[in-house]
What does this fold into?
Amino acid sequence: MDNLDYGIIGNCRSAALISKTGSLDWCCLPEFDSSSVFAKLLDEKIGGSFEILVSKEYTIKQRYKKNTAVLITRFSDGENIFELHDFMPRYYNESGGYYAPPEVARHVRHIQGRPKFRVKYDPKLEYALGETRTHVKRNFIVSLTQTEKFDTIFLYTSFNKNAVVEGREIELIQNGFFLLGYNEKILQPTSRKIYLDLERTKVYWLNWTNRTPTYKKYNKQITRSAITLKLLSYDKTGAVLAAATTSLPETIGEVRNWDYRFCWIRDASMVIKVMSDLGHKNVAKRYLQFIIDLIPDKDEKLQIMYGINKEKKLTEETLDHLSGYKGSKPVRVGNAAYEQKQNDIYGILMDVIYAQLIKFETDIENGEELWGITKGIVWIVSRHWQEPDKGIWEFRTEDRHFTFSKVLCWVAIDRAVKVARILKKTRKLEAWSQLEKEIKADIYENAWNDEVNAFTQSYGSTHLDASVLLMESYDFINAKDPKFVSTVKAIEKNLSNDGLLYRYKNEDDFGLPSSSFTICTFWFINSLFKIGEEEKAEQLFEKLLSYSNHLGLFSEDIDFKTKRLLGNFPQAYSHLALIECAINFSTKDNEERILESMRE
It folds into this structure.
């Protein structure tokens, strides 16, 4: 498999990746950031997988059940046909909550003939550290490890358990199932119960997507991206993950490999803004509660990222026994970037708080806490906005005065002023408005470079950076302002490579990147659209969509030469930016139709 040809299934507690041939190659249980049960994704030899093997006469096709997170893999040799319906149960239960156990269900549907398959069931608990032993018991198959620490996983099935474990051929004459569970079941699973779980899970997703507006253009892509973002949200605390994986490299064979199974304040806040624009209010409310719970002390600075259960310490380790994706070492768990200082997070968070207050003004819970956070953010920004930081791209070397960070410091104060007005808290307005003007003037004076005719990556620099394209999105500058237009043109000239964008071209801690950061290309397309180059923007958008995998999913990066997907997968950042672009094109289309009808 040369591309990241995987589908994601999940239940807002954990997730699993299944290859286009039906192999379960990545799964962490009981939660997103737990150690892996299957990690073939990170080591093809020892990582562990759960595969459905058929003879070469079979063709295999994969799709999602429309508007759901149920993944269907179809095996057919023309005469004999069966399907694998993979899902993680999630549905409303009678007590008013959700049933979302740490389980992967594989419903095997008999379609035609007498298809034959074998199973390769090879769990490797605890990131394949030490030995995992598998035993067939009367009611289930149990796998356990006790080398590093004790852990177990249970497999229930309607098929012959010995045949499954030994990889013997199984002939399918009726529907069957596999149920992989972190916990031993109290009631024995049956085919009927698994089918019922499948139908209930389908209904959950159909109801959820039904709350997403329908768009004339790119509706399919918007819906799939929205479901993917929902799959990366963690119900228990309201956290939103950057991606479901760790250590998928930005470039094959290099060392830019990071663990993304955490909640970055920046990524998550951007996701929440898009999700609430799509009408998914509960995701936004849970996330705001997550933030409130993180800030008990009024003078406590926000970290750039947290664990999904609100952990503040995310110690980074390397798993040297794993060879890495396509041999790209190291495999890391944890992320040392949690200790970095990035001043942009305050503005991004304030933007979300402001957006939620606008949207749900009469329905906002925790208004007092949010006002407290607003005051705290202004206090921190007013004392630290003039200091350098690591920036949005997390440079691990020296701190700089990054333009994006400064713009977002301005956003923090601008939105705080607006929040104060909404909440009728006028005492702070004069001082805050003065600070907002001061930061704006500082940016215009120091970030603009006459030599390159653009806003640059950092103060006094001639280097360009895709992040400055967001100056317009955050209302710092008007799209038609000559300075913004010339910045977009300069970025196109310097950072575009066959329609794909570099984040920046100056060498960082690891040398020049050889892959495009997917979100940057979406930002660029959006900027072209805003400055009036709409046709060109849509052509680039169509081209970019063609680089998704077979299910319409995107990772973090795209290789400039081969156009293969790279980096952690699926990437929340990429899908939120896709939604923003698609809505722009669709809304524009709608506005034009309204004008046409008015002319008639």
About this structure: The longest helix spans residues 572-599.
